[in-house]
Amino acid sequence: MRRDHRPYWMHSLWEAFENAWAKRFLTPHFEALGPDAKIVRPWNLEVFGPNIRVGRALHVVTRSDQPVSFTVWSPGDAQGAITIGDCCFFAGGVRLLAGGSITIGDGALIAKSVTITDSDWHGAYDRIDPRPESRPVTIGRNVWIGDGAFVGKGVTIGDNAIIGARSVVTRDVPANTVAAGNPARPVKALDPDGPFKTRMDLLGDPKGLNAFMENAYKDALKGNSTLGWLRTKLWPKAGD
Prior knowledge:
UDP N-Acetylglucosamine Acyltransferase, domain 1; 8-stranded mixed β-sheet; 6-stranded parallel β-sheet; 20% helix; 26% strand; globular; O-acyltransferase activity; repeat; transferase
């Protein structure tokens, strides 16, 4: 399909269904989940384990072939945790795997198929330890982690940093730094004074943003009809 052929009522109904599904079946698995969360196809988001806390305006985009998982492994008296700040975005295929602690700051952008883990999950010699070593991972505010990157145990990434696609991050990355490669190394410095425009700016007024998005969808779907949408599903033609 070249464009969205749904009538506006269908878009609104689908969005209401996703929100209701997330509230009924997903929200109870969080230790805390702030208001204004938007999870696309929430049935593809797995929240497993205790102590998973998220701030306001969480945004997750999933697909059936790109599920997202927030996983805390806490056997016995171990107290693993994932803590996510306000206005963070996670694309399809993201995995957060915590045996100890993963902390992600406000406004972070985590792109498709990123893995962030605080443990190797097996020792070099002891590969059956149910409580493998972990070291905290800390992702700062307004950090952007590119497609397919890997962030390993004990890493701290400073505010505003950018991690290049497919990078393997095994050492700390300073604030206001672009890092890339395997292993990731600094390749560029950002001006700490910016000015930066962040997801905190975008989502600072949730009601205003919702009104803007609704008007944008109404305009984009204007003229679409139920019969027209049905035709594109049953008898698609060139240009649809």
